[in-house]
Amino acid sequence: MILNIKKLSSVSDYLLVCSAGSERQVHAIADAIEDGLRNDGERPLGREGVTEGRWALLDFNDVVAHIFLEPVRVFYDLEGLWAEATVTEVKDKPRLKTRKAATPKATAPKAKAAKATRPVKPAKPAKPRSPRKKKGEE
Asked: Between the chain's N and C termini, which has fewer beta carbons within 10 Å?
């Protein structure tokens, strides 16, 4: 969610508050935010807690991003602390299911393409094995 704190604080204009399911996800979300803004020429003024992975803070001056593990988010309750702020809820976008792309025939080597056109012989059924005899047994 995005909290608009322009009228409530001189420190920042917006707080981005989100949850992650694991410490690894906290790292990944923080890296994705930082990488995305870096592509637009923005660099964080501060970066805290990312290495621990329980709560990461990225300070971009007008926007401060908080990425929490869910129990830590509940404990600190920033939404309750900034209860007077205007809230914009952001829903996750559903991921599109992707199918494996077929390998274009033009990129396949000619030798392999020729083998693929030959008829395939059916596999022979496996022969049943007789149990092994221990030494001294007949």
From this structure: C
**Closest among 84, 90, 82, 85 to 29, alpha carbons compared:** 90
Average pLDDT of the chain is 79
Separation of alpha carbons 6 and 85, rounded Å: 8
- Contacting residues for 104 by C-beta, under 8 A, at least 6 apart: none
- Residue 104's alpha-carbon distances to 36, 41, 101, 109, 111, in angstroms, are 32, 38, 9, 11, 15
User: What contacts 15, CB < 8 A, 6 or more positions away?
Assistant: 2, 3, 5, 63, 64, 65, 66, 78, 82, 85
Tell me the pLDDT tens digit for each residue of 6-60.
999 998 999 999 999 999 999 999 999 999 999 999 999 999 998 888 999 999 9
Nearest Cα neighbor of 16 from 83, 71, 79 is: 79
Give the lowest-confidence range in 4-8, 22-26, 91-95, 109-113.
109-113
Domains annotated for the chain, with CATH where assigned, are 2-88 (3.30.460.10)
